[in-house]
Structures are given as C-alpha cells and as structure tokens.
Sequence to fold (1184 residues):
Amino acid sequence: MSPHELNPLILTLVTFVPTAGAILLLLFPRRASSIRSFALIVALGEFVLSLHLPLEFDTAKSGFQFDVNLPWISSPNIHFHLGVDGISMWLVVLTTFLVPLGVLVSWKSVRERVKEFFILFLLLETAMIGVFVSLDLFLFYFFWEASLIPMALLIGMYGHERRVYAAVKFFLYTMVASVFMLAAIIWLYAQTGSFDYLVIQQALHGEQIANISTAAEWLFLGFFIAFAVKVPLFPLHTWLPDAHVEAPTAGSVLLAGVLLKMGTYGLLRFNVGLFPAQAREHAPWIVGLAIIGIIYGALVAMVQPNLKKLIAYSSVSHLGFVVLGIFTFTQAGVDGAVYQMLAHGVSTGALFMLAGMLYERRHTYEISEFGGLATPMPVYATFFLVITLASIGLPLLNGFIGEFLILSGAFKAKAIYGVLAASGVVWSACYLLWMYQRVFFGTVKLEVNRTVPDITARERLALWPTAVAALVMGVAPLVWFSAIDPAVRVALGPLGRELGRLVGQ
Amino acid sequence: MIPAEDYIRLLPEIVLAVFGVIVMLAEPLLGPRASRKPLGIVALVGTLAALVATVLQADNLGPAFFSLVRVDDFSVFFHVVIELIAAVVILASLEYLDTQQIHAGEFYALILFGSVGMVLMSSAMELVLIFVALEISSISTYILAGFRRRIATSSESSLKYFLLGSFATAFFLYGVALIFGATGSTNIQDLGEALRAGHSSALVYCAVAMMFVGLGFKVASAPFHVWTPDVYEGAPAPVVALMSTAPKAAVFAVMLRIFFMASAPGWFWLVWISAVLSMFIGNIGALVQSNVKRMLAYSSIAHAGYLLIAFAAAQDIGISAAMFYTAAYAAMNVGAFAVVSHFAAAGERYVGIDDYAGLGRRYPVLAACLSVFLLSLIGIPVTGGFFAKFYVFSAALKSNLVGLTILGVINSAIAAYYYLRVIVVMYMREPEQEEALAPISPSLGVALAVSVFATIYLGVLPGRVLEFAQAGAARLIK
Amino acid sequence: MLVPLVILAIGSVVAGWVGVPHALGGSNQFHQLLAPAIEQVEPAPSVAPAHGELQQTGVEAHAQESYTETSKERGLMVASIAAAVLGLFFAWLLYCKRRDLPERITAHLGGLYDAVRNKYYVDEGYQALFVWPLIEGSRQILWRVIDVRAIDNTVNEAADGARALSGEIRGMQSGNIRSYAGWVVAGGALALIYMLWAGVR
Fold:
C-alpha cells in the first residue's frame, strides 16, 4: 500500500505496536537470547514505522495531522483521538529512537527475569508515545498514569541498592501530583461535556464556560503541579536524582530521554495552550523557578561524587532551560525549548548509556573510582567527549541550537532572564568538563582501571546513532525546524503577540 | 389471590432459599470428614440459577406482594451484582474449606441464605421488610464470620460483629419506628410522596439520623467503622470477600432507596462528613498495617467514603456513579480476598504483608492477579477502579462539590502508598519463606479469572454497565 | 627539536618574503589577499579634505597616505628588530657568557621574581576567590543543606508524619467491644443532634 494510505492508521500502529510486541513476548519461552532479539526487532521496527511520520508530515498545514478520532465510551464522552503536530511528532520519533538503543544497552546487564524486563520496557514505550499523541484529555491522563507502573517496576525490580525507595518515591511523587491534574480534567469535562483538546481549547478561548476566570487559576495550577514534578522543576526535583541513580541503565535512558519531556510537553500543550492568560500571569515566578533550576542544578551537579547523580542534576539544569524557553512566549524561545527537548533527549540519553557501560565494567558510579580512563578506553573516551560537548552546548552539536534560541528568547523577554540563564551555560561547561577531566584525563590512579576493556561492537552500535544525531542536529537543524517552527507559531497564537522572531532565519 | 407474576418477581430469592435448604438437607448425607465440595457445587448452581431468574425478571418489572417488593432496573442491577459476588465467593471457598479442614456444609447454605437477605434488600419497598432482609443477611454473616471455630480470633470476630451489628440494627429499627410515627407509613413510595409534599417534621429528621447510624455501621463508614478491622481480620478470607462487598452493595441500595426514592431530608451534611472521615481514617489507618486483611479492611472503610461522595452529588449522576462504584469495587475486592484466601494456606498462616515477599517470582500468575486488583483499588486507568472513582468525582464536580472532590483526590493519592507497598513487596523483594503453595484449584482459577475479567472489562468498556446503572438511577428518582 | 625548528625557520623566511611591506619596496601580498575581508578605516579627520569630500576607499586611500605610513612602518620595523636583538644579546649574556648572573639577579629580586615565576599567583587567586567558594558553597549549602535537608527531608518528614498519624488512628481499635459501641453511640448522638437542629429549622 502506498504511504498515503497508511496515514489514518499510522498513529494507532505506532502507539500499539510495542504493546503487541509485549503481548507476544508473554508467549516466548524463557530464553534470554531470543527474548532480547525479539525485543530489539520490535523496537527497531517501531522506529522505522515512526519515520513515516516526519516523511509524510505536511509542513504547510497547521494543526494536528494523522488524525484518528473514534468514539470509545459514550458516557462519559471519551474518544480515541490521536493526532500530532510538529512538536509532538518529533517527540514520538525521539522515543522510538531511544528505545532500541535502550534494548541494546540492556543486552548483557539484565540477566534475571529478562522476559518481564522487556515486556515492561515495551509497555512503557506505548505509554510514552500515547502521551505525546493523545488529543483527548482522558486518553492523555490514561497514558500518563500508564507510564508510571512500568517505570516504577523497572526501577524497583532491576535497579541498584536503594531501588525500592527510589521506585516508590518516583511513583508517589508523580502520582500525587497527577491527581490534581485529574481533578482539573474532570472539572473541564463537567463544564464542556467533552474531553477533546480542541473542543476544550475552543471553549476556553471563546469564554463559553461559566466562572472560568476564577476556575482557570486553579485549573492552571492543577495541570502545572503535575507537569512541574515531572520536568522536574525546582523545588520538586528531589525524586529525580534518586530515581536515576538506582534505575537500571535503560530505565535511566528513557527516564531522562523521554519521561521528563512529557512534563515539558504538557506545560507547552496544556498550560500554555489552554490557559494562555494564566500562563502569562504566572510566568514571572515560573521563569524564576526555571532559572533557579538552571543555576542550582548546575552548581549541585558540580559537587556530586556520583556520576549518575551528576547527570541527573544536569537534567534539572537543562530542562530549566526548556521551561524558561517556553515561558518567554517568544517564537525563538519556544522553538529553542522544543529543540532542546530533542537535543537533551539524545545527549543525556547517551550520557546515561555511557555511564551504564562504565558500571558494567567497574560496578560503581563514583567518580573517585575512575581517573585517567582515556588511556585504557580511548574510543569510549572519544564518544564520551562528543556527547559531553553536545551537552555543554558547543556549536556544531545539537545542544547549542536549543540553548542559543532559548537565550535569545529570554533576552527578548527580559534582559535579566537572559543574563542569568546564560551563566547556566558557563556552569554546565564547568561541571561537565571538570567531570570529564576527573574521569578520563591524567594518569590512571587505580590499578584496576588499567585493564578496563574498551567498548564492544554492540556498545558502539548503540552509541553511534546518538553521536551522529548530535552532530546532524547541530549542523542541520532546519530538518527539524521545518515542522517545529509552524507548530510553535500555532501554539503561541493564543498568546496574541510575538515579542521576537526566530533569530537567524 | 397472589398473581403468578409476583412469584416471578421474587424468583431469585425463592431460588436461593430453595437451594440453601437443599444444601442444608444434603449436609448430613456427607461423612463427617468428607469434603464439602459437592455441596459447594450445588450452591454454585443455585446462585447461577438465581442469576438466570434475575434475567428472567428483567422482563417482568413491577411491584409484587402488595407492593412490599418492587422489581425495577435498580433492583435488577443489584441482584446481578450480589449473585455474581456469591458465585465467585463460593468458587473461591471450594478449596478453602478443604485447606482449612472445615467440614460444615452449612457454610454454603449460609452464603445462600445471606444472599437472599441481600438481594431482597434491593427490591424491598417496605422499611420493615428491609429490616427483616437486613437481619437475614446480617445473621448469616455473623455465623459465617465465626466459621473457623477452632481459631480464637474467628470466634471473637463473629461475636463482636454479632453484638455490635445487633446494636446498630436496633438504631435502624428505631429510625423506622420514628418515621412511622411521623408519617404513618413505612412504604418507601408512600414516604416519598409524603415527604416531598412537605410533611417532614423534626421527628423525620431524627428518624433519618437513626437509620443513617444503622446503615452506616453496615457499610463500614466512619464513625461507625470501628468493628471492621477486627472482624475482617478474624473471619475466614472468603467470608470477608463476601462481607466486604455483597452486604455493602445491598445496604447501599437501601440507602439509595431511602435517600432518593423516599426523599428523606437533611442527610447531605451527614453524608459529607461521613465520607470525609471514612476516607481519611480508612486511608491513613491503612498506612502502617502489616496484616493484609486488616489493611484491606481499612481500605474498605476508605472506599465506603468514596462511595458516599457519590451520594452527596446530585441525583441522577450521583446515583449511577454509586451503583457503578459498587459493581467495580465488588469485582476488585472479591478478587483480592480470593488471592488472600489461597495464599493464606492452612490455618491462615500467611496473612502478613511481609509473607508476600517475592510472590512475583514464585507464583507470577497469582501475583499478577493480585496486582491487577491492587492497581484497580488505587485507581490506575485500564481498571474498573479508575472509572469508578472517575464517575464519582465527575458527579461531584458537576454538582459543584469542589472541596469534597479535592479531598477525595488527595485521598486517592495517599491510598496509593499502601496498595503499592504490597506490589513492591511482591516484586521487588526476595522471597523469605520457601514453602510451596498448593496449586490453584480450577474453581479458584475460575473465580480469579472472573474477577480479573470483570475488573478489566469495567476499566476498558464501562459504557454498558454504566448504562444499566443510569437506567436504574432514573427509575429511582422518577 | 632541531628539525622542527629548521622547518619553522624556513617557513618564517618564506612568509616574511611574501609579506614584505610596501615600506621596503615589496608588494604586501597578504594585505591584498585579505582586503575583501578587512574594512578600510576612514582616514583621521585632520587629514580629510576641508570641503567635506568623503574618504576614498581602497588602495587609493592607502596610496595617498603612503608617505606618512611608510615612515611609521619603517620606525616600527626598526623598533621590533632592536627589541629582538636586545633579547638575543641578554640571552647570550645570561646563559652563555656570564652563567652566574641569573642566580644573582633572582636572589636580588627575591619576592618579585617568585611572583612573576608563579604567574603573579593569578591561578591561586582564582582558586581562592572563585573556585573554592563556588565548589564548597555548592557542596555544603546548595547540596547538603537545601537539597538534602530542606527539600528531601521535608518530603520524608511528611511521610513520617502520615505514619505517625496512622499509628494514632490505630489506637481507635482498642479491641474492647464497649468502646466500639461507644463510637457508634457517639457518632449517632452527633448525627441526631445535627438532624434535630436541621429539622427544627
């Protein structure tokens, strides 16, 4: 069948192929090698399938594409409504990109209960994709909650020493915050009779709802809490370091690479998309928290003795940038924020993969246990350097584009925002380079590090795509912006004014 | 002369009673040490026959026996729910009785007789008849609670339940007497007309308060809940499965009838406060429990609270939400207790939460079933528990009960912890005791399958069941 | 070391030859090569024609000022060569002719010499002024106090508080039937009082 015919089905397929894979895995005998291979095949097939989206995406049309809208339940009025715009489409592709890499990275490190691991992994993929493609608020909440259990189980069953504490903390933190979002969603349903995103957006902007002005405050905050915990925004971030440190490598990759983006995506799609007036009103303190997150995250990252915790705090810092970009309400800022979401997903996902490879060799994440690793592991060190530089935001790599655009948007919004946020770039260079120096440069201090093996072919296979992506995203951002920019323009439309235009285009 | 349709309208009760009598008569025919499974099968057939009878009834709606009884969509809904609960409980008990060395077939007869009382409660239109049915169901459950008669806690729970239950029922009866004194009738429809016409006096309010005490006790709502943890802990697990779901459903049906059909006045704030107290006491009390049955008892109290929120909401949407909640809650609770009853093993040795450590690894299917029920109790999407809570909160928000909804939502979040703890223990801890469990018997397998299916069905396609509930609700307030 | 230096020396001579300035009669190829990328600076106001005619750009302007420029250039050339020769001379003096001089000079200079040797202690200054406060500050204050104590402990204490409350609620279950009945009566009494009040209203 021609690609066009696939369009109405593609989102349903992309969302549920991983679940189908998980169900098939249930029938497999407990042979780790066949399970792993099958999971990889499903994940790769899913990635190829998802590529249909950018290839068939029409950048000239505004609004959501590949629309699927089927009634599911008549009362309450819930529809199986899926659709993507330029922003969510690339987030879906990011997800399908990282999942096979996560499978590759877990090849040898998951030895027990392998079947359950990959089943949970694939179910998690469905939930994550579902969050990005849902246009029905109920469906969105459904997938949002659905992502909690697989992730909590992955952390709690396959993680490290304090995994149970971390898993429960992760689950409860996110769930408690999400119930407020549920209350907001139900309220909106009670007032409009529909869960459909577009219908609700119309009703809110057309002021067709009774007592909307007082209620909108609370609705905004209800949604905000749920997303702020997920991003994570200071001071609600303390679940992240624990969750990351204790999670298995693939879990961390998806947690940082995709799950955190669910929070920022939610802020853009719902808080800004549905409640622009409240967003503008609350922007000052939200931006304040974002900037605090940027600087605080970076400074605390600097003094972490544990490599994974350092990367976790760096996520807090980088996603502070994203939130800042979103709440500048400028074309440049939001463009940069979306791009940074993608870039961060790639680079931090890769950082966790690299950390995991180190753990497999030395069973520790403590920086003091390393030192001079460039000598025994030169190829690994090179990959690590490329990704580190991407994370810092070196021009020609993907981190630069997003950060630069966010900063330009921030400056346009208020100079002080830009100044403070720009210092964050300096701090991130500080802690990442210092970490790199302590881990790789200098002489090999500990004897055991001398004989550490360099990376294997399989690990190389997992890392190359990220390095290539980091480079390509850094030099050819227009490939992504052709879809993202118009979508951001539409998203900012309700905000009425355009304080700045995309710099450089 | 009593017309034939009347008998049809009472058919499920008649069928259940007849089968109960058959079980009683057949009991001495079995040897003193023989398994009582055959009797269980007979009882199961009885409940299924009653189910068929209920379906037959559905075409025969209307009053019966001089308007003492009334079959409508509302009563049919509860009949089906209660009969299904009874069937699943019987399935779960078939192996339980043998494991616990209980050789008294009266067990099944009592379940059947109790069910008679419970289904009768949902179709009764006379307060006195409601009282009689309430007593029938209560006395059956009092005896069932003490069925592990060699264990002290079981007898203790039975006695406590009996004493406190009678005490509370007395309140209810007194309320009935007061309302008779105030309005001159105990027929629900007549009461409705009288009270809607404005004949409510202070006496009626007092009557409602009294009835609320009695009924609130039975559904384990605060502050009348104190008996629940002790009684649930001591009673045999399948009996708790029955006690925590079927009589609750029946009494909630009665409350719906009295509050809405009879238009009892003034109960809104009673329900509001009771709902909030039940949720908080239930959820916070459960946080530190180490015994699974006690934890589920506190969870029952909390769920009674969520259900009462639906009562506080406006009529049509609130009633249907409450009805749906009873059905979903029944499915997940019966299932959870079925797993507990199997895992507890002889003498109910393994009822601590720590005993469940590593269950995910040793018995994945059992653990998966329990996880489904626990997730439903938390209210995770894809399970019936989620939609149940959703409808309740929906109804509350539509009626502008924002405060109550926020409290309910916060409680859902608090509750997540103690349900999650069991899942954590099952999957994320190493097994401590190595003793092998008996394999799951076919009857228990069917029971679990039905419960899991019902829980997930209500979570994925709740529309049909909700429509039934809405039809029943509409009938109630017409 | 010798070979690279030889290569560099040859390269230097070639580069110098290519870039011989106009002042010495050569054609400065570098200047023309880079001309498109380098903006011509406007001539100084004193040199601009009084009747307001604007500057001429390009090589023409350069040619006009060539005389003044040439003498300046020549002067600079002489100065830089002189400095290089002087340096050569002192290096020969200190390290070939009179080897004892460096030590006597450094001993004489004392602290000043140490300061210069240690790059004026700029690195240490940075360390004390910026690096150490930042790192220790982040470690002790931001991480230990704010993140661990203020935020995390708050969360953990909320959990402990819930536990404690749960323990209190457990206390309701005394096991004593009469107290249970007491709860029922208490609840009933409150309900009754409320309903009486509501009914009388």
Summary: Strands of chain A lie at 65-73, 78-84. Chain A touches chain B through 31 residues (CB under 8 Å). Chain A has a mean pLDDT of 88. The longest helix of chain A spans residues 331-362.
